[in-house]
Every structure is written in C-alpha cells, then in structure tokens.
Amino acid sequence: MTRIPVIAGNWKMNKTPAEAAELARTFVGALAATARVEVILCPPFVCLSAVYAEIKNSRLGLGAQNLHWEKSGAFTGEVSAPMLSGWCSHVIIGHSERRQFFGETDDTVNKKVKAALAHNLTPIICVGELLTEYEASKTNEVVTRQMKGAYDGLSKDNALKTIIAYEPVWAIGTGKAATGAGANTVIGISIRGVLSDLYGATVADSIRVQYGGSVTPANIKEFMTQPDIDGALVGGASLKANDFQTIVEEAMKAKM
After folding, report:
1. 121 occurs within a structural domain
2. Distance (Å, rounded) from C-alpha 96 to C-alpha 99?
3. 132-151 average pLDDT score
4. Does residue 232 fall inside a structural domain?
5. Please, what is the end-to-end C-alpha distance for the chain in angstroms?
6. What is the total count of domains within the chain?
7. How distant, in Å, are the alpha carbons of 43, 53, 54, 90, 180 from that of 82?
8. Alpha carbon distances (Å) from 80 to 95, 155, 197
9. pLDDT digits over 222-244, tens only?
C-alpha cells in the first residue's frame, strides 16, 4: 500500500511572527518542487497568522502545536480547535514535552484527538518512551499503552484521519537518534500492531507513521528507507531552511 510521505516541522517556542513569516516564505519557494511529499509547518500560536499569510496559496500545510479539548471557556492561556480550524489543517497532540512539562496524560491526549477530529483538524499523535523506560525494555509496554489511550473510542473512519509520530523521548533534542531499524521495529509491533488489533490490518497499513527525535539531513534517509516509516516530525532542523529542504527532498527520493 502506498502511503504519501509526510514531513512536519515543529518550530516549538521559536521565532517571532516576523521571523516566522520570513522562514515560511523561504520554504514556499524552496519546496515548490517536492510535490510528492506532504509538508506541514507548525509554528507557535502567535505566528500562525503570519505563516498562514505566506503559505495559503502554496502546497504547504499549517499545523498548531497543541489545543484544548473544550470549544471555549475559562481556560486562560489555552487555544481551542474552533480557533485553529480557520487557519490550520493539522495539530500536534501529546508531544513528549507536553507530557513531561505540562501534565499531558493519555486521557487528555484522547480528548484532544477527538476535539481535533470534530473540527476537521488532522491530529499528529505523538507516542514514545522515556530513557528509563527504554533502558528497562519497556518500550513496547509504554507505546502500546499510549496508542490504546489515544485511540480509545475512535471509529475506524476517524482513525484513518490521523497521523502518528513515534518519538523516543531519549532522542528528542539530545542528538541521539534511534536507528532506522530500531524505530521501524517499534512502529511495526507497538503502533501498527495496536492499530491492527483495534481496526484491522488494512487500517493499520493505511495510517501514516512518522519518526521524530534528532532528525537531520544526515540521517533522514536511514529512516525513510524503512518500510513502516512514512515521514518525520522534525524539531531543530526545521528552523534551518537548507536542512529542512534537504530532509524533505531526501524523503521524496527514498519513497519514489
């Protein structure tokens, strides 16, 4: 089954609106010839409008980095799905930094996934184990639990509208990427295996799964040549125009 490669750039808490607009403008031109890869830019909330203005007539997608599961209410500092749906096509949910620093749980991830889908936003659902869990050989246990939590109560049709990012926490921002073969094994067993149990093999083979964690131009080919890896959720390298362009181009070549 052919799955369209998908590369998302998570800019995290970087760039002012003016800086974000300039970077987005660069990507519009640089990535014009990479039509066989879906590319999504995920700037901070305050930069969404500026980036949207630059990419709205291009093939690039726009994603938010988080959302709240309620439509509105007394949730100071939060942003809801209806607020994003006019700008964004995607939203990152359950990133390890949200889980680690802001109390995100499997339950809140599930609520946010459902809120995103209810407002036609494609969730990029993040799962992955901590270093201590990896060293204790609990990767399968942790990722399986996170997957089951994220997809609890989702119909087959809604499951097909999601993207998954496998991000081993010990590899995020550390410069220590997993091996392509290692990540592929986790994705095949703990991610597609859970999806197959929940929805059947056809659905499991249809949903795209990214790798995230210290992705660079030097290692993107290693991941993209793996059969179960369909793209990357890119952090630091997505803030460097040449690096991100190379990652997208290498992803396209690997899946041609």
Report:
1. yes
2. 5
3. 96
4. yes
5. 13
6. 1
7. 18, 19, 21, 13, 37
8. 17, 22, 31
9. 999 999 999 999 999 999 999 99
SS3 80: strand
pTM (two decimals): 0.96
Report the catalytic residues.
Answer: 95, 167
User: Residues 17, 22, 24, CA angle at the centre, nearest 5°?
Assistant: 90
The answer to whether position 213 is within a domain reads yes
| Placement of tokens 């494609």 in the chain | 122
SS3 130: coil
Q: Give the CATH number of the domain where residue 225 resides.
A: 3.20.20.70
Containing structural domain, residue 35: 6-254
Classified as helix, coil or strand, 250 is helix
Span 187-216, average pLDDT? 97
User: Is 223:183 a contact under the CB 8 Å cutoff?
Assistant: yes
Q: Is the confidence at residue 143, as pLDDT, over 70?
A: yes
Six-digit token string for 236:
């630091």
Please answer whether residues 143 and 109 qualify as being in contact, where contact means their C-beta atoms are separated by less than 8 angstroms.
no
Q: Map tokens 């036609």 to a residue.
A: 120
pLDDT(61) > 90: yes
The kind and range of the H/E element at 135 are helix 131-135
1 in any annotated domain: no
Say if residue 5 is exposed, middle or buried (CB neighbours under 10 Å; 0-12, 13-18, 19+).
Answer: buried
